[in-house]
Amino acid sequence: MTRHKNLLTLEQLRVQITEGHVDTVVVAFTDMQGRLQGKRLHAAYFLDVVVEQGTEGCNYLLSVDVDMNTVDGYAMSSWEKGYGDMEFAMDFDTIRRLEHLPSTVMIQCDLVWLDHSPVVQSPRTILQAQVAKAAEAGYVALAGTELEFILFDTTYEQAWRDEYRGLPAANQYNVDYSIVGTTRVEPLLRDIRNTMYAAGMNVEGAKGECNFGQHEIGFLYDDVVVTADNHAVYKTVAKEIASQHGKALTFMAKYDEREGNSCHIHLSLRATDGGLAFWDGDGRSAVYDHFIAGILATMRDFTLLYAPNINSYKRFADGSFAPTAIAWGLDNRTCAVRLVGHGPSARLENRVPGGDANPYLALAAMLGGGLYGIEHGLELEPEQTGNAYTSGKPKVPTTLREAREAFHGSAIARAVLGDEVVDHYTNMADVELKAFDAAVTDWELKRGFERL
């Protein structure tokens, strides 16, 4: 893929800083939860010191919960190990302008230990490991993510004070493909689209979705790591721009009882020489079929990486356009895996991930599962025609606990991802389960306060 013209080189950034056009450099990595974490550096300090000497951050950043609490159970980071540093290894191919912020650029980072060995539990490193395996097998992976959000006519601060209940949606009815519905919020959508294009992303467009206030902004496919990088930046910037407009948006998988936020992921392979890997003559190649079979075979074991939170599993409901059956079909939206396109555009769509998925982990799971299918020559089961919800096919896990057990006990997951990765993200699930099990919910209070 061609590097986007709006991305900067280090030399271009150096000129921008010297001429006074840039005064702030954000260095950021993506954590376990898919959030950007890092620092804002003064531009002169960045040039004078950080370019050559680097910068660090506490290794607890890959071993905390959503509230940034230190928790037990992580081998890489603990009180016993002293919570030392990791180095933020800047990827100078990711320098991008953030035009919604004054004179600011961002650089995304890998995480390495102070001896420069990789932090294998880092989401970006996990995906890079699968990219390397694909390259060894003669393939390049391309992907696109389709990420939905729900927009509210309130600020994040007010939403917090309201405890996220009764928030006014930006649209009052189903606006799926509605031009009138998107026009209502076009000032925000346009701002996000243009800011993302200026930041080096190939923006396709925006459309309304089914839930009240639900929208999607689409981006063109790219190299899998570039797609994951862009996805992480987009989620952060979309929230920041919404805040600037006095609004709030959420990517959580299931905000209410209506349609959830999905993150359908499209993935294909090309040969390293640019040739087609998924197509042979007039139909699917054997490689494509093995790849699909691998994703299906690992779907239950890898669901934890597609649906990493308690809330993720509320989205899986029959007849909801979110999948429940582990099956594949040709342009069939009732299946977990939907095949679309032909020839150069042939690709599969994984419909399991939600808007809360970490893009690096979800793409690593898909790529790793597909390569497993190729390596082992897995045979593709017959196509699911008709309604997969009523097909009797095996189901995706219905709870985080069920997904955790499948992931932790999976010999395939350990072979594909490694023990360190499996144990690390099993503990992440354990932390969430422990927190949720201790929580008293509104549902319990409403049912039990007076009547029980």
From TrEMBL:
Pfam families reported in the protein's UniProt record: Gln-synt_C
GO terms under biological process: biogenic amine catabolic process; biogenic amine metabolic process; glutamine biosynthetic process
Keywords: ATP-binding, Ligase, Nucleotide-binding
Annotated GO MF terms: ATP binding; glutamine synthetase activity
Keyword Ligase found: yes
Keyword Nucleotide-binding included in the entry's annotation: yes
All residue ranges annotated as the GS catalytic domain in the record: 123-452
Domain of life the protein comes from: Bacteria
Family of the protein in this entry: Belongs to the glutamine synthetase family.
PANTHER family: GAMMA-GLUTAMYLPUTRESCINE SYNTHETASE, TYPE-1 GLUTAMINE SYNTHETASE 2
Protein name per its UniProtKB record: Glutamine synthetase
Organism whose genome encodes this protein: Aeromicrobium endophyticum
